[in-house]
Amino acid sequence: MADGEGDPGVFTATALPGDPRLLPTLTSAFLGTRVFRDILHAAGVYSGAAGDTHRADVPSPLGLRMAAPGTHSPAESFTLNTWTGTFSHTIQSPGYTATHQLYAHHSLVHLMASSITIRRLDGSTHPITVQLQSLFVPQSQDLDLRPGPDFQGAHYIYGQTLVPEVEGGPRPTVHMLWTPIPQSLTLGGEERERCWEFLTAVAGSGEEAKRSYSAGLSLVAAGSLHRSHVRAWAALRRGCSVELDGPLALRQALHGCLYYLLSAVPPRDSPGVRFHGISPGGLSNGTRGEDYWGHVFWDQDTWMFPNILLLYPEAARAILQYRIRTLEGARRNAREQGYEGAKFPWESAATGREVCPEEIYGDQEIHVTGDVLLAFEQYYCTTQDQKLFREDGGWELVEAVAQYWCSRMVWSEEEQLYHIRGVMPPDEYHSQVDNSAYTNAVARRSLNFATGLARDLLLLVPEEWEDRARKIKVPFDEERKYHPEYDGYTPGEPVKQADVVLLGFPLMHPMSAEVRRNDLEMYEPVTDPAGPAMTWSMFAVGWLELKELQRAWSQLEKCFSNITEPFKVWVENSDGSGAVNFLTGMGGFLQVILFGFTGFRITRSGLLFNPAFPNNITKLKVSSVSYLGNKLEVTITREEIRMEVTETSQDPPASPLEAVLESGQRFPLWEGQSVSFPTAPGWIQRSPS
């Protein structure tokens, strides 16, 4: 299958994958669907109680498909263009082409649109007809839908979800307007070309649905609906541009990951749009029984968030605000288990209450609470946005997590250390273990961050936070010089996925290079080769840290068995099982590029760098690294690092920066001035001047 004639951001095929789950997704911050599918989903709209909560299926008028009557096997092509955020289907028949374009409008997030263009290629004058096949029925298994009056030529339905997430809780309402779809379209004998536009607007209120539909109609009248989407999407892609010189398959995977992950975030300048988190399969998936039913896991905070933070901190803030909004639900979770503070759910939907259908995970996989706080810490270190913590609820969340960890620990007289007992680590092959190395290390990290932030905000620091952070046990084998996964772990025991290796990154738990290597050596051969896709990326980051470039590449290569053709849709497990459009795996893959190849590490004092490339990669350019209100263009080759501040925020004013090498050399980073120096480890920090 040709791939856009070498363009790594355009994926073209002459046939569709046999498995419809592998069709590309079209998503905005509020709406998502798979191409040719008869349902869509709206953000935050779940139906079903507790463990049965799932994304409510909204009937989709967009799932139509063109057919050329009377033409035997016409030439067809299907293209996902990640530069324009548009999917297209083209039929090439003798004498004409018909092109169907489909997209989720990036800036009008309540609007999805499709257009069909018939273009005559010869001098004929007979009418040309294209049939439209649609499975659309204005009914849903999850919504009590009823018709409303037509609006500006559009049909209208609205209704509430059938079952609230918690008893007595809200049942979200969905309002939908759509352009009626005929069974066929005909280009008249005297016409050379014609375009028909079809709009679907979905919102939580009739007013918003009508406003979005009207805005779409106005742009259609001006001939600029698709152009306005492409402009907004291209601006986002430019602002989050990552380019590398290396194998085509790697560049295609990079652009595919950026497309699917950036589709999930809110558009710039959209403070009014409430964000509802990112689930492992994204907004396009998550109907009952599919892709973890659209629930939000640690996948968002640990695997996707760091990439979004580095490229687009405003969207990272929206993700954190989702967690702040669900804090009350997290407090309820802690209380119900007999603890203080807030316990974030293993699976979260609209309320922050635990919606995991299997109790063992919700009860035991408590590391998610620390994972949530690690995202807050990374955001704070990168932005110094005190408003989020002082005024917008961030501090209350940080404090509640610290309280939870303190109440979850017990003192061991024998070891004179605090223990956390009866947990499931990230490695889900083990449960009811004591002192999971990862869980305890992330709890320590939570308490240290809470302590440091309290001091920055001039708040009183409870003594027990520092005491417990100092005295919590993180298992370590002095003889073998490695971290056992939990108390009683025997070397060689199979492990499901990345667990202890996460101590090195992203936790940056203090350890020598020897211990880091031993952890990688110990767990790499016993990690299940059929485990989830994000695992190998963390081994790759570890080997890059140790400058073991070939070993890093061999781990990164394992990710490619999770990428399906032709549209670069990821599957969770290499046998095709698990979540599809697996954004978690994409997030891990992007972290190899954005944090592994660059060596970027977010710390309180600076943004560290220490580049390392596998042999088949010669250059990496990240056009918009965000740090302390500055946008930096960073270009790295084996010989040279080049940095330039391309933009600075005015409100609040950006901190002036400098790059400092380990050798002691300093390079002031002024806006519009490029500086370069030999490739070497160092850090970017606030300039003392």
- Overall 3D shape: globular
Mean pLDDT level: 96
What's the CATH class label of the domain at 11-232?
Answer: Mainly Beta
The helical percent reads 25-40%
Name of the CATH homologous superfamily of the domain at 11-232: Glycoside hydrolase, family 65, N-terminal domain
State the strand order across the main sheet.
Answer: 1-9-10-11-12-18-16-15-14
What percentage of amino acids are in beta strands? 15-25%
What would you say the CATH architecture of the domain at 11-232 is?
Answer: Distorted Sandwich
Please summarize the sheet with the most strands: 9 strands, antiparallel
Which regions have little confidence, pLDDT < 50, spanning 5+ residues?
A: 1-5
Q: How many individual helices?
A: 16
Question: What is the rounded distance between the termini?
Answer: 56 Å
Extended strand count: 32
Protein name: Protein-glucosylgalactosylhydroxylysine glucosidase
Family: Belongs to the glycosyl hydrolase 65 family.
EC number: 3.2.1.107
Domain Glycoside hydrolase family 65 central catalytic: 284-490
